[in-house]
Write a structure and sequence with these properties.
The structure is a single chain. The protein has four helices and 17 strands. The chain is α+β, with helices and mostly antiparallel strands. It folds into three domains: 59 residues, no CATH class; 128 residues, Immunoglobulin-like (Sandwich), CATH 2.60.40.1080; 87 residues, Sandwich (Immunoglobulin-like). It has an eight-stranded antiparallel beta sheet with strand order 13-16-17-10-11-12-15-14, with helices on one face.
């Protein structure tokens, strides 16, 4: 019997080795070496084996042992890293690139360029601040028809300038014609002070249309054969909002004069008083009573200068100048009391030290 089992064990071992080499079976534990021959028992059993028996191995006899089925080994793959972190990193990178593209489109300059631009704008603002708005003034000036140079009127862009002519009594002198000779610099129009369109105009309005330049204006006054020529200058620090030119003659609308006036004309000191300025630099301002609060008086070495709306009767004035608003300037002897008409009443104007 033992002789018959030994060939069967050898065939099983050979079959296991073939299966292991072909990869159809997992690692097989080697069978223990056969034991030394011993006396056969009365009921011998087949030798135990851990290796599975091939099909048909049990056909050798009823006492043969069936081997366990052989299973293929499972292949274990290494764990793959998750794709979520990589996808999140790509999204963050896309956001950064999109932000940089939008920033370049909205602010295509670098920080240094922006700083330079800000400094340039600050410089421009500083330079613009230097250019001040012109000062506007209103005043009167004598007009001599035999002067060698025409008087000047300062005009400015964005400012209208009114020009009027008055006679020695302060009445407006009508204008029969006027002509400006540089329409690219200024536009001239005329209007009346009475509101009646049939009356001759007595006021000229100059409207500049340029910032710099110069031109002239020719005006013809009623009853005068000599035209008046004025020079209009733009771009000055001072603008004449209203300019009154006083002629040393009696005009068509002259007021009644109480005594003859010297043909020499109006002196500059009297026009200064009419404009609210001292007649001369050395004149002393003095207080007066009996006239309107806005009345002003100055004393010089040889005369008294008075600026008031009152009509002075005594003493006799040496010179007088007035404007269409009713304001008058007088050159008088230096006396302590003046007799005047104020608000329709006869009153005394007292000078004080």
């Amino acid at each position: 019997m033992a002789t018959w089992l030994r060939p069967q064990a050898l065939r099983v071992r050979a079959l296991v080795l073939i299966l292991s080499s072909s990869g159809l079976a997992g690692p097989v534990r080697a069978a223990p070496p056969p034991a030394a021959p011993a006396a056969p028992p009365s009921n011998p059993a087949p030798a135990p084996s851990d290796a599975p028996a091939p099909e048909g191995a049990a056909a050798g006899g009823a006492s043969g042992r069936v081997a366990a089925p052989v299973t293929a080994p499972s292949t274990v793959r290494p764990a793959q890293p998750s794709a979520a972190p990589a996808r999140q990193a790509r999204r963050e990178q896309a956001r950064e690139e999109g932000f940089e593209a939008m920033e370049d489109q909205a602010l295509p300059m670098t920080a240094g360029q922006l700083q330079t631009l800000i400094q340039s704008l600050e410089t421009i603002e500083a330079v613009s601040a230097i250019h001040r708005e012109p000062e506007t003034v209103m005043g009167a000036a004598p007009l001599q028809l035999d002067a060698s140079r025409p008087p000047m009127v300062r005009v400015g862009q964005g400012y209208g300038t009114s020009i009027l002519f008055t006679d020695r009594t302060g009445k407006a002198w009508p204008i029969t014609a006027y002509q400006g000779f540089n329409e690219s610099l200024f536009v001239v129009s005329a209007s009346t002070t009475t509101g009646n369109k049939e009356d001759l105009p007595s006021v000229l309005v100059v409207q500049p249309v340029a910032s710099r330049g110069a031109g002239n204006l020719v005006v013809t006054l009623k009853g005068l054969e000599t035209p008046v020529v004025l020079t209009l200058v733009l771009g000055q620090k001072t603008v004449d909002a209203r300019k009154e030119f006083k002629l040393p003659l009696a005009g068509p609308n002259a007021a009644v004069e109480y005594h003859a006036v010297s043909p020499a004309g109006i002196e500059t000191a009297l026009l200064n008083v009419l404009n609210g300025l001292p007649p001369v630099a050395s004149a002393k301002r003095i207080a007066i009573r009996g006239a309107e609060p806005e009345a002003m008086a100055w004393r010089t070495d040889d005369a008294l200068y008075l600026r008031t709306v009152a009509e002075i009767y005594s003493p006799e004035y040496g010179q007088r100048a007035s404007n269409p608003s009713g304001l008058r300037a007088y050159k008088l002897p230096d006396v302590p009391v003046l007799l005047a008409s104020f608000n329709g009443n006869l009153t005394e104007i007292v000078t004080e030290e």
